[in-house]
Every structure is written in structure tokens, then in C-alpha cells.
Amino acid sequence: MNLCKKILKLALWSAPIGVNIGIFSYLIFSPSFNPFSSLSNFERFFQHSVSVNLVDVFIWALIGIIFGCSSLIYRIETWSITKQTLVHFCITYFSLSIINIFANVNKFSWAKYYDLFDFTIDFCIIYLIVWSVSLIRAKMFVKSLNRKLHQKNQN
């Protein structure tokens, strides 16, 4: 399968996953539990809350596509896991930073720099947690495979 088909297939699978994770996390972590939008800065640009909800869904789908398609990096077998992780981190961080900047549209203020700094810290912490869990799971899987191979060789 060529690269364009792989990317399209990943995008079609990861967009609904991004939307579902976005809705789920919004329902759990929304500070006001406002059913209309998590993008309150965008509300002033739209006449109806339905439009704001569509923007929410679009952004969540876009985030799902970014993570789904960037996972192709881990299929490059000639790269070390360190290089794969650094490239994946950079792609996802810069993509989400752009979305974050556009989603928090308001007039220029120094608070934007603080918001970007806060976003960067949050992103790094979450990325580190997810990466650590993934690494631990991969190590456990390799140990399990090695144990099975060892048992098979003994028989």
C-alpha cells in the first residue's frame, strides 16, 4: 500500500477516535460543564452554539488525524526509537501548538506567551506519561515473547 493510501486510511480511522476522545475529555474536564463549547474564545465569532460545536468536533478530528498520521513515524525501521520519538514529539507539539494558538484567538497580550508556555509544560508532561506507559507496555510484551520463545526452545 502506498504512503498516500496509508495516510488516508489512518486519517479516516483516527478522526473519529479524536472526536470521541475530545467529547469524553470535555465532559470530564470541562471546568464549567458548559454543554455548548470548550472554545469560549471562538464563541464570539459565531452566531449559534451549533457552529461552535462543529468547530470543536473539527478540531478534535484534526487532533486525532495528527496523532494517527504521525504514528507512521514509528514504522520507519531504519530510525532509532530515540529519533522516532523526537520527530513524533516535534510534529505533534508544533501541530498542536498551531491549533492552540488559533483556538485561543484574542487580541495580542503577554498572556498569550504564558498560555503557550503553560501549553508546552502540559503537553510535555502528558507526552512523557503516555510515552512511559507505552515503553513499559512494549518492554512487557518483549519479555512475554522472550519467555514464550524460551519455553518453546526448552520443549
Automatic annotation (TrEMBL):
Bilayer-crossing regions: 7-29, 49-74, 86-105, 117-138
Keywords from the named record: Membrane, Transmembrane, Transmembrane helix
InterPro entries xref list: DUF3021
UniProt cross-references to Pfam families, sorted A to Z: DUF3021
Identification of the protein by name: DUF3021 domain-containing protein
Species this protein is from: Lactobacillus bombicola
Top-level taxonomy: Bacteria, Bacillati, Bacillota, Bacilli, Lactobacillales
